[in-house]
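[Q] Does anyone have a clean structure-token version of this?
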Amino acid sequence: MSRPLANITKETLAPLWARHDIPVDRIASALGVSRQAVSYKAKSLGLPSRAKVRRCYVDDETFTRMWNAGVCSTDMAAHFGYTHRSAIGTRRRILGLPARTRGKGGTNSGGWHQTISLTQFFEAELAAAMQAEAQQRKAAQ
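[A] Here you go.
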């Protein structure tokens, strides 16, 4: 009977575990075990929790643009790799950005004023970039 966990050493798992851009599911698939087995093995080998050492891949400029555009906190959290949307509020306070206000609900998600989806934000960014490029081409002619 094969015991795949017994064959996983600290030297094998540590470099993969430290790469936060590689999901645990993908590591598990490559090693032929479950996601839970990888987490258990990492803990038993003394590797740090990924949740506690999560690196922030968010630059302040992108975060500020998204927040000011009104991107939904849940979408922002998923995009930036945060485990919970409350981290977005904490980051907003650290950056000194204004809080959002609630309306009477209805058309907006959760009643928040000026919320848009991540897709709408990227579409608006693309449209602005295309417009700027068109103006540059027109000025160059």
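[Q] Thanks! Anything notable?
[A] The chain has a mean pLDDT of 83.
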